[in-house]
Design brief:
The chain is mainly alpha-helical. It has five helices and three strands, in the order αβααββαα. It has a three-stranded antiparallel beta sheet. A hairpin with a 5-residue loop joins β2 and β3.
Length: 123
């Protein structure tokens, strides 16, 4: 999964607003899931050929709208809509980060979750 943004320099809509709108739509549609890590401001600016301030402005508006959240030096992520969803997304992100550090591949990480769920929800 990757962020696919196209900025039309000839459009009437300002580039920051095009960027904001496309990220918001991708998040709303689920193509950018909760917890998806967005590129850095500088990285995305370079990728799109925009000024860093343009990307930073779009990120500020998206954060104010609750679409994204910045976790300090850890980066900027697609935000969950409510407190419970945010907590689950944070736990899932922490789990993924931990399993990656431990060297587990996707299948092994999924299998561990499935086993834990079976144990927790068995009657």
């Amino acid at each position: 999964m990757s962020l696919k943004i196209v900025i039309d320099q000839d459009a009437v809509t300002a580039p920051y607003d095009q960027l904001r709108g496309q990220i918001a739509e991708e998040a709303r549609a689920g193509r950018l899931p909760v917890g998806y890590k967005l590129p850095t401001v500088r990285g995305l600016a370079e990728q799109l050929g925009l000024a860093a301030n343009t990307v930073a402005k779009a990120y500020r508006v998206l954060e104010a709208d609750g679409v994204i959240e910045t976790r300090g030096r850890h980066g900027t992520y697609i935000a969950a809509g409510d407190a419970r969803s945010r907590a689950v997304a944070a736990a899932a992100s922490a789990y993924v980060e931990r399993t990656r550090r431990l060297g587990l591949d996707r299948d092994a990480a999924r299998a561990a979750v499935e086993e834990a769920l079976r144990a927790a929800y068995s009657d």
